[in-house]
Amino acid sequence: MSMAKARRVLIIKTGFSEFLDAGISTTVSLGDVLICTAILPLFKKDHVTWVTSWQARELLQENSYIHDLPIFGPAALQQICKKSYDILVNLEKDIGICTMMKQIKAVKRYGFYFNEQTHNISTYKRSTGYLLVGQENHRSIKKTVVDMLYETVEEKRRGNEFILQRARRKPIQSDFGFNHTVGSKWPTKGWPQGHWQELEKILSTNYSISWQKGQKNLTKYIDWIDSCRIIVTSESLGQVIGLALGKQVVTLFGPTNPARTEKLKGVTAIKSTLLCPHMPCYLPFCRHDQFCMDHIKPDDVAQVCRTLIKKEEANLVS
Predict the structure, then answer these.
(1) Where would a tag sit more exposed on the chain, N or C end, judged by fewer CB atoms within 10 A?
(2) Is the pLDDT of residue 96 over 80?
(3) Are 24 and 93 in contact (CB under 8 A)?
(4) pTM of this prediction?
């Protein structure tokens, strides 16, 4: 019985745009790049080339599913245009990248491309056209981000793990890691600093606490997350890295849609109790009388943290 020939697969994901957001940013979305690694097990027997940005390379360079990792630019474009592929997956909405798609030889194409008839970005699969609208228009969508990724390549989800492989893992140094800062795109995701300090007071009598480290250095940031048993965070890069490293992650949700990640393995979601009709709004700044993240109580977060760490301790004993 002959073995199936490995397919040549090209994935384009730089982080210049977010898979579920209509906007293009000058800041690379590292979390979005790491999220997209969830589809790699589909191609575990294939030869995968992944074009990414310089900023995101560290998230992918030790990944055993990826055989070639060109950095986006003229040299990478020249390299991939010289070859032909069995499968092309473009997960970028950047108009330049989408226009470039027609120069690449591929048998099957998935994701985004530039439609010369409508002069706009389109999806190869018509039913995934909803991905082209902003996240604020995804309120009614109950699928996880992994479900949506698999749907984009006409597959059903077989797993739900992001993949971040490291040659050396860090030993556990703290029970809880407080991933308390948020990015500049959606500062409304942030939990008030006073609430973090109150949570520390509650937990520190019995458990060790570590505050976020390595904000300006990705290696140190990943090392810090790896050194914590459980991560407490908003919906952010820290959440995705924590899950990719196999951590239990307590995620605080207010202005964003918890359905995207709350059903993924390792996530314990805590949602704002504010009955705001605009949630999830995805607004960068709150325009309303009450701020949703204020309504997540430190006592409630502490109770969830205690329950999770007791389960962790029980698993270690067994």
Answers:
(1) N
(2) yes
(3) yes
(4) 0.91
Helix (H) or strand (E) holding 113: strand 105-115
Between CA 57 and CA 47 the distance in angstroms is: 18
Strands 209-211 and 105-115: unpaired
Cβ atoms 87, 106 nearer than 8 A:
yes
Q: What is the pLDDT, as a whole number, of residue 179? A: 97
Name all contacts of 82-85 with Cβ < 8 Å and 24+ positions apart: 83/8, 84/8, 85/8, 85/9, 85/10, 85/49
Among residues 218, 185, 77, 78, the alpha carbon closest in space to that of 90 is found at 77
Is 8-152's fold the same as 174-317's? yes
Q: In sequence order, what E strands does 154-288 have?
A: 174-179, 209-211, 228-234, 248-253, 267-271
Tell me the domain boundaries of the chain: 8-152, 174-317
β-pairing verdict for 105-115 and 120-123: antiparallel
Residue 172 has pLDDT above 80, yes or no: yes
Q: Could you tell me which residues come within 8 angstroms of residue 5 by beta carbon, excluding any fewer than 6 positions away?
A: none
Q: What is the pLDDT of residue 1?
A: 43
Class of the domain covering 174-317: alpha beta
pLDDT of residue 137: 63
| Per-residue tokens: 174 | 């703290």
Residue range 44-74, pLDDT digits in tens: 999 999 999 999 999 999 999 999 999 999 9
